[in-house]
Every structure is written in C-alpha cells, then in structure tokens.
Amino acid sequence: MVVRAVRGAIQVDRDDPAEILGATRELLTEVVRGNEITPADLISIVFTLTPDLKSCFPAVAARDLGFVDVPLLCATEVDVAGALPHVVRLLAHVESDRPRSAVRHIYLRGAARLRPDLAA
Hints:
This is chorismate mutase. Its EC number is 5.4.99.5. Keywords: Amino-acid biosynthesis, Aromatic amino acid biosynthesis, Isomerase. It catalyses: chorismate = prephenate. The structure is a single chain. The chain has about 120 residues and is an alpha/beta fold. It has one domain (about 1-120): CATH 3.30.1330.40. Helices cover about 25% and strands about 30% of the residues. It has three helices and five strands, in the order βαβαβββα. The chain has a five-stranded mixed beta sheet. α2 links the parallel β2 (about 40-50) and β3. The longest helix has 18 residues, at about 15-35. The chain starts with a strand and ends with a helix.
C-alpha cells in the first residue's frame, strides 16, 4: 500500500447549510465510489470552501456519512479575483494499491470547469 491523494470539487448555488452539506455528501460519495475507497483506507480529508461559503463546515457531511474516525479539516480557499464562486473542494489522503494514473479525481456540477481534463 502507498499513500495517494484524491482531489475533488463541487459547486453549489448559494451559501446554505443544507445545500453545502448535500453537495459535500454527493462529492465525497462519488470520490469514495470512483476510487473504491473504504473508510479504513482514509488517512485524512482536507475540505476548503471559497470565501463566499460561510454557513457550515463541510466536514459535518463526512461525519454524517460515517467517517467518524477520519481526521478532517476545513479551511477557506485563497480569495483570488475572478475565481469560480461557491465551490467546495476536498483533498483526501488514502492508502491504496492503485497506481497514481488510476486515481479518479472528481469534479462535479459547475466545478467541472476547474479541471475539464479530469471531469470527464
């Protein structure tokens, strides 16, 4: 086993706890499914939100999905002029036998514009 990093992002329509948590659950579920990750494989997850999202912590969604023994951290993205708004990102560190080239990074909804090469 080696440590791999899996990236992902999803865009929400507005700063609303239910919307942020629902989108985070959707993103995390897709990352786990797409990379055949089990909770035991997860080392940690860092979540970031664009500065316009302030109503909740996305880590709550991970706890709701049962990731109670995984270290989680939430932070604010750098406030770059012209950056895509309303985006929740994650960086998950996992133990995996997959080669780096087989890791599926997940970009959903409007966040697919961030990395069209990976969103397909």
